[in-house]
Amino acid sequence: MTNRSLRKTVRLTSSYVLLSLAALFCIYPALWVLLSSFRPGDMLFSETLLPTSFTLLHYKQLFENYPFAEWYINTFKIAMISTAISTVLVMMTGYVFSMFRFTGRKNLMSMLLALGLFPGFMSMIAVYILLNQMNLLNTHAAVIIVSAAAAPLFFLFSKSYFDTIPRSLVEAARIDGAGHLNTFFRMILPLSKPLLVYVVLMNFTGPFTDFIFARLVLRTPEKKTLAVGLYDIVTDRTKLQFTMFAAGCVLIAVPITALFLLLQRYLVAGLTSGAEKG
Amino acid sequence: MEKQQSIIEFQRPFLSGRRTSAVLSILVMGAGQLNNRQYGKGIALMLLHFTGLYAVIAKLPHAVWALVTLGEKPTRLEKVGKLYQQVMGDHSIYLLVEGLIMIFLMFLLLAVYVQNIRDAYHCARLREEGVPLHTFRQTLHFLLDYRFPQIAIAIPVLGVVFFTVMPIVFMILLAFTDFTRSHMPPAQLINWHGLETFRDIFRLRVWSETFYGVTLWTLIWAVASTLTCFGAGFIIALAVQQKDIRFKKFWRTIFILPYAIPLFVSTLILRNVFNGQFGPVNDYLELMGFGRVPWLSDPEWAKLTLVLVNMLLGFPVIMLMIIGVLSTIPGDMYEAADIDGADGLQKLRLITFPTVMYTMMPILIMQFVANINNFNVIYLLTGGNPVNGNYQFAGHTDILITWLYKLSMEQGQYNFASVIGIFIFVLLSGFAIWSIRRTKSFKEERL
Q1: pTM of the full predicted structure?
Q2: Which of B83, B97, B174, B222 is the most exposed place for a label (fewest CB within 10 A)?
């Protein structure tokens, strides 16, 4: 074996070992929670990695002891509506900042960026009172409005993306008589599919993961979302039912994970093209 | 010619002079526009004028009173007939928010008012010069066509103003009050007390010690978590993108997994995985003959665990981005390097690394800024614990943002929390704006 091919073998082997090790760390938590959710009993503790017997009881309990089905529906409802609104707002804001020049544009951009960095829950008390004034406490509309209102703060990514679209295209459309909105919906959006997928995905996962604000607003059990419900289950000190929590985790993670894997192609494209422009 | 004359005659304002139109608009919004014979615009503005006037007379004094005094009557027991009854007093916090909303609306009105005067003046001048003015419909078309960016941006900006800016102003104001759990409306009124809270944080030992300690850990945490995520993402990306590595797609899919599972779920899972008593990690360590490690209960181990977990959850995004950058590096650069006899390490150091850094730098800075505020991982994994006896309401692993959360949501120390919030805001926004203004995407400006 020549020196060269030996070095190649070493390099490849160590690469595969590294990748497998990293993969193990990535898969393990997911696998562990999946297996735990099928394990009989309440505790996560077990002598063996593979449970000796499987049960679906914890899944059943979730739906019987908690309004889990309702939480599911609530979460999807909130996620879909707020995603629709947020996506339009984010795309529109990015588009305007990218394609148009107007007075105060840079200052406005800096302001929005700085505001986006502000810790959201610092202002939660004020938002809470505002919602109270509008009679929106314990409603899904409150969660939707607040998340949609904050969405434009994260326009930078979409702006970077739109910057790559030649402006001559837009100008051509304008000359052909297309209105601004027409240009945006008919031409720009189809051209930015990876970005669109990325933005939709990010906004969609929001309601699945946000529990701090949602917990403040959504009070009664039948109004809760999955994240709020599950968080309350796991922090309920009176009964620690880890296996049931694991089952809940699986049920939350499955739709999002599936969506991610399904849209992986676009996700990579969206992320990278946004990154290139920095 | 005669016809032309009559049209101009017809279009002439009732009272001539651009000043007159402007003055009319100062007196009553829209009056100047009516004088210019722009009826649609004039009537719309006039309606707004009277609604606004009503609001100013009916609501503004109350709002100013509310903001200045924060309420005068505390909740108290009062004798009604023979019984004592609880009588609700002024609710300082509600008064503060209502006052703020009113002030914000007034600013909005003022902006319209100023525009209205300028418009009346401008249109009257056009009239004098004989330029036919837009009809109402034309005005609308003009707005949609040439003021599209302003109109399109107005909706999101209004939302941001009311749900982000207003609450932030509210929060900043709280820093100057004595709003704490022991001073809580509606039972008590809260009062303005100037810079006292700021002074307390820097002067009182319990507070300043916590403040400096937590700030230091926040910065260490932000640097460590950014670097580990970047390092891991870079190494994995390099490994996957090697020409002769097989199943590239398979590997990428696996590495996306931690990113795809909702962060809040995976963090809670990992909290259990690293649990000192019944977590599987310690079980395996024990099986292999090592001792149990206090992953989350020892201050130093807890910090290490946090960085580790954050790396695990954060590197996939970075990896994806770096893969994207790697694919843009032209292959002939490497071929040229090969001909020059460069080895792998040299190619990495001289070609790959600089190219990746060039595009990733702004993202790294943003990541650093975001990590200063990385609430979720810390709150869900350790909750700031283990407890630190020397700290005021904070644990060993609390960063500024989780300390702030504890101060406001758990301890009800709203004014102290607000001061921390202002501090974080100043720290972050200065840094972020400085760095963003330097990125390509901000500088580009093709015209």
Answers
A1: 0.80
A2: B83
Helix, strand, or coil (residue B188): coil
> ipTM above 0.85?
no
Domain A34-46+53-273: give its CATH code. 1.10.3720.10
Q: Is the dihedral of CA B239, B242, B244, B248 positive or negative?
A: positive
What distance in Å separates the CA atoms of residue A145 and residue A86, rounded to the nearest whole number?
Answer: 9
Q: What is the mean pLDDT of residues B331-343?
A: 83
CA dihedral sign of residues B338, B350, B318, A86? negative
> With the CA atoms of B103, B109, B111 and B114 taken in that order, what torsion angle do they form, in degrees rounded to the nearest 10?
-130
Supply A186's token pair: 């008919």
The average confidence (pLDDT) of chain A is 81
User: CB-based contact (8 Å) between A133 and chain B?
Assistant: yes
Query: Average pLDDT for residues A16-42, to the nearest whole number?
Result: 85
Question: Residue B280, preceding bond cis, omega within 30 degrees?
Answer: no
Model confidence at A86: pLDDT above 90: yes
Give the DSSP letter string of B191-254.
Answer: -B-TTHHHHHHHHSHHHHHHHHHHHHHHHHHHHHHHHHHHHHHHHHHHHHHSTT-S-HHHHHHH
- Distances in whole angstroms, Cα of residue B273 to Cα of each of A5, A142, A242, B28: 41, 35, 12, 69
Q: Does A54 touch chain B (CB under 8 A)?
A: no
> Which residues 158-217 of B are in CB contact (within 8 Å) with A?
159-160, 162-168, 170-171, 174
Q: Is the pLDDT of residue B361 over 50?
A: yes
Cα separation values, B6 from B35, B36, B124, B133, Å: 18, 16, 18, 15
pLDDT tens by residue, B390-414: 888 888 999 998 998 888 878 888 8
Domain boundaries, chain A: 34-46+53-273
